[in-house]
Design goal:
The chain has a single domain, classed as Phosphoglycerate mutase-like (Rossmann fold, 3-Layer(aba) Sandwich), CATH 3.40.50. Helices cover about 35% and strands about 15% of the residues. Helix 3 links the parallel strand 2 and strand 3. The model has no long low-confidence stretch (mean pLDDT about 95). The structure holds 2-phosphoglyceric acid. Pathway: Carbohydrate degradation; glycolysis; pyruvate from D-glyceraldehyde 3-phosphate: step 3/5. Catalyzes the interconversion of 2-phosphoglycerate and 3-phosphoglycerate. It catalyses: (2R)-2-phosphoglycerate = (2R)-3-phosphoglycerate.
Length: about 230
């Protein structure tokens, strides 16, 4: 049985400040580094050997991945980084405090922005002018994304880079972001559009799937530590 592990990065400075983050490159806090280390320790005990690690181009995920690989003694494996695994783009909301937006726009609007499948946050005027995206045409870079839009750029990555590896029996580790992982969980577990708003992914908490040769779930386990907070 092949194994797929999903892991959300440790706490970032923006998580700590309760700010919308998306593609903002917020670094890990000390607590975030600790959570990554703890996730690595939990994974080491499973003795899973990975063939590849997939992550985004955002430093909170890359740093978490580095810490985990070090902890599990597998820093030698290939690490693939793709903007397709970036967090969902929060558009003009990024940098704003979530509680402040609740006061100004109301709980219902904030719940839609944060957890609905199709609601698009307010657009930024321009796409991100950051050199890590310069190789891509403006037309494919978002100015804000619903979870559905994020899913539409994440699933092709799954189909091209992850599923073929799993079908060859190669265990895969994905270190990414709350909504990137919600999109993948929705796809893997075939969760309805209306039900996905109830799915939360905690920082630094590995989710292990055992999959059969058609990539159907045989077993799922969440490795919680005593510090896991949803
Ligand atoms: O701000 C963000 O980018 C995400 C993840 O931290 O937050 P939320 O839980 O609101 O989708």
């Amino acid at each position: 049985m092949v194994k797929l592990v999903l892991l959300r990065h440790g706490q970032s400075i923006a998580n700590k400040e309760n700010e919308y983050t998306g593609w903002t490159d917020a670094p890990l806090t000390k607590k975030g580094e600790f959570q990554a280390k703890e996730a690595g320790e939990l994974l080491r005990k499973t003795k899973i050997t990975f063939k590849q690690l997939h992550t985004s181009v955002l430093s909170r995920a890359i740093k978490t991945a580095d810490i985990v690989l070090d902890q599990i003694g597998q820093s030698n494996i290939p690490v693939l980084k793709s903007w397709r695994l970036n967090e969902r783009h929060y558009g003009a909301l990024r940098g704003l405090n979530k509680n402040w937006t609740r006061k100004v726009y109301g709980d219902r609007q904030v719940a839609l922005w944060r957890r609905s499948f199709t609601t698009v946050p307010p657009l930024m005027d321009e796409t991100d002018n950051d050199r890590r995206y310069h190789a891509y045409p403006q037309s494919i870079l978002p100015r804000a994304e619903s979870l559905k839009m994020a899913s539409d750029r994440i699933i092709p990555y799954w189909v091209d880079k992850i599923a073929p590896q799993l079908l060859h029996g190669n265990n895969q580790l994905i270190v990414a972001h709350g909504s990137t992982l919600r999109a993948l969980i929705k796809y893997i577990e075939e969760i309805d559009d209306e039900e996905i708003d109830g799915v939360e992914v905690a920082n630094g908490t590995p989710i292990i799937y055992e999959l059969d040769n058609k990539l159907r779930i045989v077993k799922e386990k969440i490795l919680k530590s005593e510090h896991t907070i949803y």
